[in-house]
Design a protein that fits this description.
This protein has about 500 residues and is of the alpha/beta class. The chain has 16 helices and 20 strands. It has helices at about 5-10, 25-30, 45-60, 90-95, 100-110, 115-135, 160-175, 215-220, 245-250, 270-275, 320-330, 345-350, 355-360, 370-375, 380-395, 475-495, and strands at about 1-5, 35-45, 65, 85, 140-145, 155-160, 180, 185-190, 200-205, 225-235, 280, 290, 300-305, 340, 365-370, 420-425, 430, 435, 445, 450-460. Strand 8 and strand 9 (about 200-205) form a beta hairpin. Helix 3 packs parallel to helix 7. The longest helix has 20 residues, at about 115-135.
Length: about 500
């Protein structure tokens, strides 16, 4: 934290004047030579940042958005942006009966009771407003609903062009309404006045993220130091920390070996800045994995470790399977991910053969005419692999699987019919459900008194406790969008 008192100490030696009696933000502005002034400073440039910014500039608020990376969008541009919406125009058109109770039950089931009820209701009750606002900004959605896993009814809309198109459209809207954005500008510290109110941030312009550093937040000193003042609020829309191996390994050692498909900029630096000014951390140890292949298809194949041994029942969800894989890797002390293997029958049983074929086209999955070729490719002992597959076949013949897989569900899949198909089973930490705790107006609460830290907001994945144990599919976007709009509305109350 860069407090007024510390700042005065810091500048005294270089000859800047420092008035002694100051008790208002405008007066503090006379102390610190601010290089930029805006009504609202938003840190981050993903979908939550952009929807909040769009709402504010539409209401004539001066907004400066800063992004530490050389491109905007963060993790949002990597997302399909499926969007769960209650009572959307598409649900009404299709005659689908949905309700707050049904949606809440789905969220609670995924969250296993770890999710805060007020935020579940915030998502549900405001999802349609957010969807309609995004459309008003020009975001396009397909004229069909998706019935996705974990949902009781079809309620998810599909963003045409995915996250890239959504961010591009919202950014165009933001710029058109006089919004300002600075790339390669990293927020280093939050500036408070003597009352504790957040009045700005210390940043580095011309910052260059360095992917080769073990910890960019700590080791990267590039850029030119500046101070930005926020007349109304500072909003952290900085996403999660799935790329920060050091930090995630501290909050949950199981996450040390996980891969992450997230944007390189997903580090814990922004989270630490909020914690320094008193924010409440919540649920930092939780995780959400992606798997690279629909896990419902895994029941038709087997998974073997680097010793060519099976070690689990392949029938499971991605969270459960990912945790078992990472635990097993720890147990046998390896960093080598297991291999998923299908024979031709198991491959053909996929619920989405075209998608499986696309994995081959993309090079993610490989096709082998013989077991020998497969073993050589993945550096597995061929004899051990052959025995593992024979044992599996014997289990099928006896209708008794070593790991209690329900063999009645495998649709005559086997491990004997070439060609074989295989790919690495690498749990990918794609989302970190933990963050700082905020109220339903997205005001960050102070750990000392549970009251809002004046002038400080957090939205989207920067917050924690929203989704609980596991985030329901297609519920990141309604969270990001409803939290962004709730934040903007609360800021507007003070205008």
């Amino acid at each position: 934290m860069l407090s007024r008192r510390n700042f005065i100490k810091g500048v005294a030696g270089v000859g800047l004047s420092a008035p002694l009696a100051l008790n208002a933000n405008d007066n503090l502005g006379k102390d610190i030579k601010f290089d930029e002034i805006a009504d609202v400073i938003i840190i981050g440039s993903g979908v939550s940042a952009h929807i909040c910014a769009a709402y504010l500039v539409k209401n004539k608020i001066d907004v400066l958005m800063i992004e530490k990376m050389d491109r905007i969008g963060g993790n949002s541009v990597l997302s399909q942006q499926d969007f769960a919406v209650l009572n959307s125009d598409l649900q009404i058109k299709a005659g689908i009966k949905d309700s707050e109770e049904l949606f809440l039950n789905d969220l609670n089931k995924a969250g296993a009771g770890y999710n805060h009820l007020e935020h579940s209701l915030r998502i549900i009750r405001n999802s349609n407003e957010a969807y309609e606002f995004a459309k008003s900004c020009g975001v396009k959605y397909a004229d069909k609903l998706k019935f996705l896993g974990g949902h009781s009814v079809a309620r998810s809309v599909e963003t045409i062009g995915g996250g890239g198109a959504c961010i591009s459209t919202l950014n165009e809207f933001f710029i058109k309404h006089n919004g300002k954005i600075k790339n390669e500008t990293k927020c280093d510290e939050i500036i408070q006045d003597e009352s504790g109110k957040i009045i700005g941030v210390s940043v580095r312009e011309n910052y260059r993220f360095n992917r080769n550093l073990a910890n960019d937040d700590r080791e990267n000193l590039s850029g030119d130091k500046k101070h930005y003042k926020a007349r109304l609020a500072v909003v952290f829309a900085t996403g999660g920390f799935s790329r920060d191996i050091e930090f995630r390994s501290i909050v949950n050692p199981r996450l040390r070996l996980a891969k992450s498909p997230s944007s390189l900029g997903q580090t814990a630096g922004a989270l630490k800045q909020m914690l320094k000014v008193g924010a409440i951390p919540t649920q930092l140890a939780l995780s959400r994995f992606s798997f690279g292949i629909p896990t419902e298809d895994l029941i038709y194949g087997i998974m073997v470790d680097c010793n060519a041994k099976r070690f689990l029942n392949e029938d499971g969800d991605r969270q459960g399977l990912s945790n078992k894989i990472l635990a097993h890797m720890e147990k046998i002390n390896t960093t080598i991910y297991p291999i998923i293997i299908f024979d031709s029958i198991g491959f053909a049983n996929s619920h989405d053969p075209n998608r499986m074929q696309s994995f081959i086209t993309a090079g993610k999955m490989k096709k082998f005419d013989s077991l020998s070729d497969l073993a050589n490719n993945f550096k597995l002992n061929e004899n051990d692999l052959s025995k593992t597959m024979q044992d599996y076949e014997t289990g099928i013949s006896n209708n008794k699987d070593e790991f209690k897989k329900d063999l009645s569900k495998i649709k005559n899949s086997s491990m004997s019919k070439a060609p074989f198909y295989a790919m690495t089973a690498a749990p990918g930490l794609s989302y970190t459900p933990g963050g700082v705790y905020a109220d339903i107006n997205m005001r960050v609460l102070n750990i000392s008194n549970y009251e809002p830290i004046k002038g400080l907001y957090a939205i989207g994945e920067a917050t924690g406790g929203v989704h609980g144990q596991s985030r329901l599919t297609s519920c990141s976007i309604p969270d990001c969008m409803t939290s962004g709009i709730a934040c903007a509305k609360d800021i507007l109350k003070g205008v």
